[in-house]
Amino acid sequence: MKFDTPAGTNPIDRMTVVGKPTPRIDGPLKVSGAAPYAYEHHDVPGKPAYGYVLGAAVAKGTIRSIDTARAQRAPGVLAVVTYRNAGKLGKGQMNTAKLLAGPDVQHYHQAVAVVVAETFEQARSAAAMIDVDYARTDGAFDLLAAKDGAKEQGGNDAPTAVGDFQGAFASSPVQLDQNYTTPDQSHAMMEPMATIAAWEGEKLTVWTSNQMVNWSLKDLAATLQMPVENVRLISPYIGGGFGGKLFLRSDALMASLGARAAKRPVKVALQRPLMANNATHRPSTIQRIRLGCGRDGKIAAIGHESWSGDLEGGGLEVAVQQTKLLYAGANRMTAMRLAVLDLPEGNAMRAPGEAPGLMALEIAMDEMAEKLGMDPVAFRVLNDTQVDPEKPDRAFSQRNLVRCLQDGATRFGWSRRKGPGQVRDGRWLVGMGVAAAFRNNLNMKSGARVRLDGQGTVTVETDMTDIGTGTYTIMAQTAAEMLGVPLAKVVVKLGDSSFPVSAGSGGQWGANSSTAGLYAACVKLREAIVEKLGFGPGEAVFEGGQVHVGNRSADIARAAKSGEIVAEDSIEFGDLDKKFQQSTFGAHFVEAAVDRYTGEARVRRMLAVCAAGRILNPTAARSQVIGAMTMGVGGALMEELAVDKRFGFFVNHDLAGYEVPVHADIPHQEVIFIDEADDKVSPMKAKGVGELGLCGVGAAVANAVYNATGVRVRDYPITLDKYL
Ligand code: MOS
């Protein structure tokens, strides 16, 4: 099905199942420990042996020699694989660095070897016996030092300019020109990268933890230089991804190589200490923001530049993305520059671009409101735009930023906010902060298959994943709505490359794209049911387990009495996203308190108001947003991969040193969804919300801390040493 005109009325609009708060159908499996995660029990042919990955001990250089003889003789060891005996390897399209080092080393903790043994302990102990001689070379590890050599990129990453930014900024009566920094961050998901690999002849099956089944299937085949038909990738449950599992990573490759060498299924879970440097991370940024305003508060000039680094051949952190679209202003510029750094591979982490971009922009907006003597909510409302400010003939498909800000302000009691440092509660200084939320809505082609059997059970099959987001549930809701059956009559099967290729889970495109793909398959199944029953033509209504056409009715199960009915289709998105800018909006409100003596900061209240199209399942969507808000508090106050600038690695490579919020750090959180349905994005009229929930949170916390203390911190995380 091609989606290229705005959606008319369709069966989803009834909203009898879709849109209803629905507990996760996979919830009981997860809380009882019965949901099989990658490292756990599967239909594996044979008892898996254990693989232990050895990471490179230098950030850059070459391997002069590797002596594996002692490791190979160690008790229980079945195989040791290094680049010397791995066979010829290719590289996946989505990988910047190779997943197995040698002879060159591209980053610290790049995999150098996998040891396969009968037990995990034997593999770990033997890995310590591998003797690697490295020739270490100097690398670039410091973004600030590499900043001046950073280069502009092309395509979507190229600089943008509208009007006369320099002139308008210079002549603005009120100006702001500030630098902000965001640190390298780690996804720090609970379940590490993990895979069980098994070979049967030339055929390879991997049970893994991956957000994008088809991308990683293709990249695993490309890396192993084998036909993609001979690989099957299964990823039914994922213990968190946040973008770290968008791509094939070393666990899957090393398990596959280890299993081939040991002639046994092999399981590899990347050890926690490898996660920070072996896996990808969100790159740090240096951002410069210039705002020029009239005394009336209207933005005349808005400029945003960002610098980030990555390995040779890597990409930018696209931190200026929201600045192109969020506020009006006739004169504008954005620019991003990429430095080559020899730190581990940078890549997408939840809301790549907007998350760190808004951490800077929304502090700048707070600073400018203060210079203007305006309320920060009113300042943002005044500078709203209903068209793409870089391309004014292009409207937003839907844009309710102003309502998010205004409804949120009322709900939060924003009018009680006082000037900086004016509110005390015992030893605590208390303040409120606001930030706008913005994240683009992306759509991806997505396919699904639906089956109807003689008992009236509907089975959904797609390679779509559930990364803890609630995919199983919204897919079941979609099929139930389309076929007029109760949720209990729907079985959802996900995360298997033998199923139709879906959008996968990334960039907050998953929910809308994958349910739209299922919608398309259900339209076909409905037609097949009507035809089988001989009920056509005429408009069919599916409800209560029955189909009605004119005055004829039957149980849908009757259509499948003589055999299962199967329908498959995909949704393909035309160019509606070129005609209309598709984005999601929101507003974050935070109340924070800072201890006047110790500088300890605590978040006291949080509110998010989100405008993200139709909300398919308010329970799951709220969970996404409160999780994102929690992550935003981490980004504001705690999270930072500390770079060793001499040797080029992230020092705090475990969950003791890389701090994220715990329950005790997080207060009551409230989430409000604006009642919307966006007919320009898909037949579901839904948009993404999981990343929107993070966008702006960090700045709202920063602005609340400023309002509490009167001290402005522009370098994240806002730790107490920065304002004492
Ligand atoms: Mo998201 S960072 O695209 O999983």
TrEMBL record:
SMART domains per record: Ald_Xan_dh_C
UniProt-recorded Gene Ontology molecular function terms: iron ion binding; oxidoreductase activity
Domain named Aldehyde oxidase/xanthine dehydrogenase a/b hammerhead: residues: 32-138
Full protein name: Xanthine dehydrogenase
Gene3D superfamilies: Aldehyde oxidase/xanthine dehydrogenase, a/b hammerhead, Aldehyde oxidase/xanthine dehydrogenase, molybdopterin binding domain
InterPro entries for the chain: Ald_Oxase/Xan_DH_a/b, Ald_Oxase/Xan_DH_a/b_sf, Ald_Oxase/xanthine_DH-like, AldOxase/xan_DH_MoCoBD1, AldOxase/xan_DH_MoCoBD2, AldOxase/xan_DH_Mopterin-bd_sf, PaoC-like
